[in-house]
Design brief:
Blueprint: E1 7-11, H1 18-31, E2 35-43, H2 55-62, H3 64-76, E3 80-88, H4 91-102, E4 106-111, H5 126-131, E5 136-141, E6 151-155, H6 162-176, E7 179-186, H7 195-206, E8 214-220, H8 224-232, E9 237-241, H9 255-263, E10 268-272, H10 278-288
Parallel strand pairs: 1-2, 1-4, 2-3, 4-5, 6-7, 6-9, 7-8, 9-10
Antiparallel strand pairs: 5-10
């Protein structure tokens, strides 16, 4: 069901988070003249008696909440929307399949602190997807809702996720007639230890936001995390890149994004661009394909 329109897939699992996720998804879809594709995955564990039933039977008899979630998404979306109910024992795998089926441009997930799994960063369903994103992926912290959005903060240190973060910032700012602060923190021992380099990164990020009013700021702080959290106190929404790199085992997100995501008092969205090569994507498809006999 591939589409030539811009399509953002939003994965929904909790009725309480539908409005928050649909606001962000709708802002992006409307900015690009596209659509939202909302998906709810009804989990069918491998050891569950549900395995005795067909997916159609499970949908008809046991997926009432998932159905209500999608109905709510349709009601509150400010953009064109389609919906999708999947039955699967592998929730991350089902979300990846939807992304492939609709040829999605972006994927929006929600996470809520704290994670129930001791070794999870953002959650057992979110982590596998964010470690190797199937497309440009956005993760929004649930539970902290802004009472209107007048100021949006976009911290930056450059890197591959800046343009994606700016896309979200621009969409939210346009929808809310908000002002944007593009911020770089200069630290004694960090990536941005040079003020002129920090100013270059701020200028480069601001260049992706020609349609909205932008304030450019370079601040000194003991650490990037400290500087961002201090600035976030005066803003209604924070959007930042995932940061963090790793060739052997890619991180879910970097330490700065993780700490800001957990400690900021306003809503936070983390953007992660799909940056793997075509060779890595081909290898991933081989790894995930059923064993051929």
């Amino acid at each position: 069901m591939a589409s030539e329109r811009y399509t953002i897939v939003v994965a929904l699992a909790n009725p309480a988070t539908v409005e928050q996720l649909l606001r962000t998804a709708s802002d992006l879809a409307n900015r690009h003249g596209g659509r939202v594709h909302a998906v709810a995955v009804e989990h069918k564990p491998a050891s569950s008696p549900f395995l005795l039933f067909s997916d159609e039977h499970v949908t008809a008899e046991y997926a009432d909440e998932s159905t209500r979630i999608l109905e709510r998404a349709t009601a509150v979306s400010d953009a064109a929307i389609t919906t999708d109910l999947r039955i699967d024992s592998d929730v991350p795998g089902a979300i990846r399949a939807v992304v492939d089926d609709v040829d999605a441009d972006a994927l929006l997930l929600g996470w809520r602190e704290p994670s129930t799994a001791a070794d999870a960063v953002l959650g057992t369903s979110v982590d596998p997807i964010l470690r190797r994103p199937p497309c440009d992926t956005l993760v929004e912290r649930m539970g902290t809702v802004a009472d209107g959005v007048d100021r949006v903060l976009m911290p930056t240190v450059g890197g591959p996720h800046v343009e994606l973060a700016a896309d979200v910032v621009g969409a939210v700012a346009l929808a809310n007639e908000a002002r944007v602060t593009v911020l770089s923190i200069v630290t004694p021992e960090g990536r941005m230890a040079d003020e002129e380099a920090a100013r270059r990164e701020v200028r480069a990020a601001a260049a992706h936001l020609p349609e909205v009013p932008v304030d450019r700021r370079v601040e000194d702080a003991p650490s990037s995390t400290t500087g961002i959290l201090e600035a976030a106190a005066d803003h209604d929404f924070v959007v930042l890149g995932a940061t963090g790199t790793g060739r052997i085992r890619p991180p879910v997100i970097g330490s700065v994004a993780r700490t800001v995501g957990r400690e900021a008092t306003c809503p936070v969205l983390i953007a992660k661009r799909r940056t793997d090569s075509w060779a890595e994507r081909a290898l991933e498809r081989v790894r995930s394909a059923p064993f051929a006999r």
